[in-house]
Amino acid sequence: MTKSNVNVKVIFSAKGMVRMNKFKIDDAARETGLTKRTIRYYEELGLITEPERTDGGTRLYSEDDIERLKKVVLAKDILGFSLQELQDFVKLREKIQHHREDYRNSRDTSKRREELDHIAAGLSEQIVMIDKKMERMRDFRDEISQLQDKVTQLLKE
């Protein structure tokens, strides 16, 4: 992380003092390789939560916010997720996080089972989608490899 953080917040918890670095949108953009406009757009879509703001309205991103943005970039650029697929993924992750809390607090085994079934179905959908993308990428790679072989063969003639 860059050293140009705006604010260092100190929180006292049962475990002691915890430092939380906050970063302006310029710093978040630099860290993630995204533009400020894209970061704001991802906020609007719900891909990241709205960050804290100063009294003057300046967005202050936490290290967790920056890491989440990096995961969004990875999913979009490397895995080729569309924005809709990213939204579905984020919703599923939030559902899992929420379920984890409910699961710990619930005594109703049928409700627990129903929630787990729903999450398992969502995860299965994500895996199928990724497998399809990987298959298309393999096919595309094979096609390019065949073209390269043809060009190499022509160069030998």
Question: Would you write up a description of this structure?
Answer:
This protein is an alpha+beta fold and 157 residues long. The protein has a four-stranded antiparallel beta sheet. Helix 4 packs antiparallel against helix 5.
* Element pattern in H and E: EEHHEEHHH
Shape: flat
**How far apart lie the N and C ends?**
53 Å
Q: In which order are the strands of the major sheet placed?
A: 1-2-4-3
Number of strands: 4
Total number of helices:
5
Oligomer: single chain
Give helix % range.
55-70%
What amount of the residues lies in strands? 5-15%
Radius of gyration equals 22 Å
Q: Flag low-confidence runs.
A: 1-5, 7-13
Return the average pLDDT rounded to an integer. 83
Given the helix and strand composition, which structural class is it? alpha+beta
Report the major sheet: 4 strands, antiparallel
